[in-house]
Every structure is written in C-alpha cells, then in structure tokens.
Amino acid sequence: MSSAEHWTQERPASTPAATAATPTTEQVIAGLRATSEGGADLVQLLTPEGERVTHPDFDIDISTDELRSLYRDMVLVRRMDREANALQRQGQLGIWVPLLGQEAAQVGSGRALRTQDMAFPSYREHGVAWCRGVPPTDLLGIFRCTDHGTWDPIAARFNLYTIVIGNQVLNAAGYAMGQKFEGRVGDDDGEATIVYFGDGATSQGDVHEGFVWSAVYDAPLVLFCQNNQWAISEPTERQSRLPLYQRARGYGFPGIRVDGNDVLACLAVTRWALDECRHGNGPVLIEAFTYRMDAHTTTDDPTRYRLSDEVEAWKLKDPIERVRAHLARNGLADQAWFDSVQADSDALAAELREFCANMPDPPAERIFSNVYAEPSPVLDAQRDEYLEYAAGFTGGEH
Amino acid sequence: MAAPTIGTQGTDSAQPEVRTVTMAKALNQGLRAAMEADPKVIIMGEDVGKLGGVFRITDGLQKDFGEQRVLDTPLAESGIIGTAVGLAIRGFRPVCEIQFDGFIFPAFDQIVSQLAKMHYRSQGKVKMPIVVRVPFGGGIGAVEHHSESPESYFAHTAGLKVVSCSNPVDAYWMIQQAVANDDPVLFFEPKGRYYEKAELDTTVSPSPLFSSKVLRTGTTATIASYGPSIRTCLAAAAAAEADGISIEVIDLRTLSPLDLAPVFDSVRRTGRLVVVSESPGEASIASEVVTRVQQECFYSLEAPVLRVTGFDTPYPPTKLEDDFLPDLDRVLHAVDRSLAW
Questions:
Q1: Which of A196, A392, B1, B175 has its CA 20 to 30 A from that of B131?
Q2: How do strand B185-190 and strand B131-136 relate by DSSP bridges?
Q3: What is the ipTM of this complex?
C-alpha cells in the first residue's frame, strides 16, 4: 500500500444514469449495472430465475416445508406492506414506510434469529417484526401517529423502531455487550443480537462507533446493512467509495455481501453470522444487496431522482417471484397451495384494515404519562391544569 | 427491580462513620457503595479504569470490581451513551463519565433522542436507569471546552433529570441516590470544588435527591444557586453579615425537576431574590427560577429578581475567567441593587 496510485479508485467512464439529468443510452446501462449487480463476492443460493445454486462457504439444507414457509412469510409481509401503503393513501395512516423489494432480506435474516436472540430495527423492518412475532397491527400506531410502538421490546426481543438514523447500532452494540458480560456467549445455545440499518446510515458517526465498540468488546452483534441503493434520493455512491461489506475489514471482522433478494442466501449467511456471534466470534457485517422498489416513504417521489428503467431491471430480481418459480417448477407446491397463501394474505390485509379503522385516538392525558419511571408531581400538575382547561370547552371539544 | 433505599447504611465497613473527605473522594466512596449495593451497576467512560479517571473519581474501582464493571471505553462520547442505552435495555445500570463538560455534545443525540425518550416511547416498558456524570464549571485555568456549564440544555429536555452537588457530603449521598433512581440522571459535579474537604458523617440521613436545601438562613434577601457557585454565595453572605445584611442561601441541588418551595417560602419572607450560576443566563436554569418565582411570589417581591451569571458569550480564554465567573463582589453588587430598588 505504498503507492498513491493504489488508493486511486477506478472511476466509471460516465456519470451513473441515476444521477444524470439527461442520460445517454450508455449512461443508463452503466447506471443499471452499477446498482443491480452485486459483483463477484455476492453470495447467492437461488438465482432470480429460481434456480438453486451452491456456494462454497454458505449453503443451506432446507426442507420443502421450510421453503414454503419462507415463501408464505414473504407474501404475507408484502401484502401487509401494500395494504398499509393503501391505508396511507386513503388517509387512514399519516405516513407509511414501504419495504417492497426487501422481503427476502428481512424474512431471511429474521427467520435466522433464535428465540433468545435480540433484534434492533430501524423503521422499515416490518418483515423482521413479523418474524419476531410482533403482530402487524402493533406497527400501525406509529404511522397513524397514535403511539410510538405498542409491543414490549424486551419480551418480544425486538426493540422499538428507531427513527434517528444509526442510533440503534450503538444501542444494539451495548445490548450485545450485556449478553457477553452476563456470560451468555460461547456455546451452541449462546445469545446474539442483530441490528438493522441502511446504506445511508453507514455515513453516520454512530454506525462507525457501533462498529468500533462491537469490535473491541468482541460483542455478539450481527450488523445487518440493507443496501437498498437509495437513501431517499441519494445513491450509495454518495455514501461510500467502497462496497459497503468491504468496510468490515478496517474494523477487524468479517464482511459478507449477500444477495438481499435471495431469501435462502440471507437465511444461510445470517444464520452463520449469528452462530459465529453466539460462539463468541462476533461481530459480523452483512451487506444485503437489495433494492427499494417503492418510495422512501409515502411522502417521497422517486421519479424525481431515479429512472423507471432501474426499477424495471430490479423487478426481474424480485425476491418472491424466484421462490415461486423454484417451488412451481420443481413441483414443490401446487396452485391450490399458492391460492391458499394468497387467501391468507388477503385475510391478513383485511384484519389490518379493520384494526386500523377502529383505532381510537389516544386520550390527552397520554401526553403526560410515562415521561419518567418515577412519579412526577410537576407533570401531574401540568396534566391536571390542562385537562381542567380542556374540559371547560363545550362537550369537551375545542 | 425496586431501587434500594439510600440511607444510613454501613456500606463501607472499612471506613469510619465520621471522616474528612474531599468531594472527589466522597464521589469515589459513593460510587463504591452503589456498586456494592447492586451488581448491575457498571461504570463506563474514558480513562475511568486503570487511571481512575482524569480527576481520579473512579480511582481503584476497576481493580476491585473488574474490567466488566468498570469499562475503559473507546474514545467516543456518543458510543458511551449509546451503548449504555443498550446495556440498560439489557438490565444494567450504567454510570457514564463524560470527561469534561464541553465533550458531552457528541453524545447529545443519544442523550436527547434515546436516553430521554425510551421510557416515554415504550410507554413505561423500558427503563433507563443511567447516570451521566459530568465534571462542569470553570475556575481551573483550562483550555477551551474544559470549563463549560451545559446543564440547561438537559434541564430543557423532557425525560431527563438534572442534579448538581455543591459539597462532599451531598456528593456522597446524591451519587448513590442518582444510581438507585430508575430515570436517567445528568449528574453535574463542580470540578473546581473536587478537592475541597468536609466532614462526612454517614450516620446522618441524607436529604431526598430531588430537594433543594437552605444552607444559611437570613431575613434581608435570598440567594438561590447551585454547584460551583454555592461556595461563592456563602462567602458573599458571610461578608454581607458584617454590614448587617442577612442573606438566606439556598442550594437548588436539583435542576430538573426544580424544588422551589423553599425558595418561594424564603422570597415571601425576604421579598428579594438573586439567582447565581456560572452558566450563561439566557434561557437557563436561572431564567426558569426567575419565571416561577414571579408567578408564585408576585405580591411578595420588593424588587425585580436579579441574576448573576456567566455572560452570554462562549466561555472565554481562562486568563479572563475571573471576569466571566460570578464572584463575591458581583453577587453582593446584585444584592445591593436589589436592596436599593
């Protein structure tokens, strides 16, 4: 590493299409290649065409039932996501954060978790919530703005959503340190923690610090980066010169790039990483190379910053379709079974819609409750004064 | 888990019940008692282990409690608080040291966004029993960022509690009470007073943590202050006594929540109040005290409530800190202005 040239990275001949105002055909192709190909190090076990392939380091022995169950989870999670997106459009939710396209990354990694493991999501991990047994209805309050999450994060072993980008990586590092301090690491039944963050978050100081802390304390932490190519409008090139998984080397732990649209590869790699951690060989970085098929949130307009060609290219790599193709072609599931999964997902969507429409607004006293664990006479007085004031309006309305 | 009651317990059998200690030693002994009382209490910070902290507040604790209970952390303040939050979710009770006041700002995000809001966000399902110790204040001739008074930022943030000790006896008890509290507590230690001594009698019960305290009674005017300025205010009161002016001095001790009942009682008797702090006055603890006193004691006031604070400037190069910091003369000048109103 002595010559300056060694550090000079190769630049693409032209600007990636995604960031050019009026791209040429060559730029479009270059851009599509930049964001849709994971490179030689990509771990893949199921091709976009549904063909099962092997990998020298990561393979998985999976039964037909397990494969069908992964498929079912992804279909249900996508259906839930689409329903919630529609509920926002119909004014029932204030905002929604779609996971469309990231089902394999979330279900694959989420299903790798064992009961004793802990997960720290950011705010798009509806699929991981599903795998942790958090009812989808528990997510709605956050986006209907009636609460900040109603599940018990300690009992569910699934922390509340973290909206400030990257904060949760440090929180997860601390939790994982605690697992180690309590002697729960070091054998087959050890504990591990996984933390989810995006490509944009890798620019945050807290994520860097989380990498440092988990490394120097040998914390049992899987750092699971869903690189969905876009941080709202900014492409991954705005966050890093280097493929993100390669950053791990600088911190002294393994970094693996997995096909984030391949549920088998995500399951295999995450299971391996969690096992490394539970045996005391953490941390591990996983970059799930995937794509945000929808907008950042329902308030975002991706047509302002990316080409529909790119979305179309990624549709060919759809995480659910490849499993469907694999199951169908190999006679592992018949149409009746696919129909039953569809019916289950429609029932879930109906349940979500019904629940959402009947969610009560929180009472005003909720403003003042649980600010502190211990009694707060100051806030009790503020609450009482406000409620008395509010009650002075006719019928309690104002 | 029920927080243990802090009181007249024989936590430190090696120590005599009555002893003369510096504030630094009192904090050290208080932390030791807190760690002995609860195995989930851990200490985290830069140089807190082998070195015992740059002020030696944690001296000897790593040796006695081990490296998993006294953690020399990487040099990153956000990391200290952010991992403490995760450890608290896991059931630990971290005591974090921020090496100097001016270095707390890298941790500001984790303190405000996670530490302060986790209990509220989870509707009480996740507690954050974390203490953040902050040596603060000036008067030590230091370089930039080593003499600041950032307490008002944290008092402004819902979900945090903010306290400051002014003497070794309070330091010994308050640190134990803060550790036993189930809420996050920002614990501001007046570093310029670390090596002042007092007689600590551990058989005398402490005051509750979130209570202010009348340190000196008086009839002519009231001074409310906290932390490093308390000694200045007591000296001012002693000097004024020679001139026949009787000043009541109240140590606020708790900055959020404030305990102002003793201040209201005092102002209703004296009719005059001066609030003293090293922190700049604008939008500060002192401002809050003034607001509440004028609300509660409007008809008792004989003069506007005055403040003697640091100026609304960055902390100056310390060749100028004697001009910046409230001293005895500036405090008495304010008392004179109040009396002359």
A1: A196
A2: parallel
A3: 0.95
